[in-house]
């Protein structure tokens, strides 16, 4: 580990010196090694942590207080499973001032978990988030049918399985911290990938429905024209 | 439409009077019908709009300025396809102060779109979001392999198709505004459903890998124990 000054840390991380100092004060970035009354040196682990903070804020769109909680979870976790659970709990905190989910939606989530063979501790934040999302769709007059909910669970299941198996099949380093960081970061940073692919897919299906190719005879069209 | 006073609007929407007045000032909620110098009445459309704002902020976690842009997009769109495209563009604006994606990642996205038979206009925000997410994973040292990226696209494709077909198969109301609102709201409000199901799935697969059932003989286990 080659020590570096703040200026070099700023250059390598792409973040300004005032921003880095702010992260130090807020406890997002561990202190450097003091080399005098007012100067400190930093190393590669600081560059890595700053890149992680930038990715979590810019790409995953997390607020700084949430980023801090996720980082604390990474730093204190002892296993992949713990760290992901901890990060999920902390990320779930974003809606903490919202109303609790209705009993009806919680019962729907329980039924879904049972049919999928999934277990969650009672009061688990993800079950509550799911129930609250179902309530919100009800409230705005677009309830999600049981068919749709089951379809989502069924379609997402293989994604979750592949993701966990990928992480487990990677060579495990000496440091559990690196493994844990990897799992949490991948989970969060692939959320925009999943949502972007879904929207790109929607736009393309929608376009196909709206604009059948003019040179395709009607009986050869993939999507029959609909009256509207 | 039965007119109501502000107090009734507050009761039905579950939002405080100061909050509603703030939304009126910010242009998130259309003005009511003036019935005097200082009093106005509101109707069911105001209740509906307030519930929508609450869902977009609390459940989808959008910032108020993004909510305003999404609502403006809904109000001015002329078709489902336009509205979803517009909402996607506006939602994509959250990372506008981030660095542009690298050429390498944009080329990967182009290759993915081609293999999936998908088209997007050049510079389309979702292509940029996707490319930026790939860059972020690179930067934090967890690059997404081509296999993984293609797996995601393949796994998400049927979700996008079902969603668009569901909306199209619904009876279309007289008001295009209601259709458009429905499509945009469903797209945004089902994001937490998708992400929560993914995390619940991950936790369950992870738990299965960590804790094989003690009463299952090793050769019957679904997940062989791994050295770690």
UniProtKB/TrEMBL annotation, chains A, B:
Show the segment(s) annotated as Disordered. 206-228
Q: Which InterPro entries does this entry report, sorted A to Z?
A: DNA-bd_dom_put_sf (IPR009061), MerR-type_HTH_dom (IPR000551), MerR_fam (IPR047057)
Q: Which residues form a coiled coil?
A: none
Q: Where is the HTH merR-type domain?
A: 1-73
Keywords per UniProt: DNA-binding
Composition bias (Basic and acidic residues) maps to 210-228
Entry-linked Pfam families: MerR_1
- Give one GO molecular function term: DNA binding
Matches recorded under SMART domains: HTH_MERR
Q: Can you name this protein?
A: MerR family transcriptional regulator
**Organism (species):** Nocardioides marmorisolisilvae
